[in-house]
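Q: How would the structure tokens look for this protein?
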Amino acid sequence: MKTEITTPEELESLNSTTPAALIYFYNDSCAPCVALRPKVEQMVNQEFPRMAHSYVNAAQYPALAASNGVFASPTILVFFDGKETFRVSKYISIDELAGRIERYYNLMFD
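A: Here is the predicted structure in token form.
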């Protein structure tokens, strides 16, 4: 499941209806955001197929970003059981991100 989130209600709905979710906050004028997005998408699709992933354009929806404590792009929030489990921001390693997700993901789905 991949969607663009534009309201707090959509974010809440995603977290309340899925056991695992990754929310990617980005900005179209941020080169690392644009370069990282397809890598994150591929990682989730290949390694964590039961995890929902959605996107928030922090430039278009700054109040949504701010209400989630996101003030830098890119920022990734990872939720398990509707609770924020961890977040990473700015300099993101796909391998490190996958390793952190895997630990929780395996506990939940294996």
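Residues 31-47 form the longest helix (17 residues).

Residues 40 and 46 are 10 Å apart (CA to CA).

Upvote if useful.
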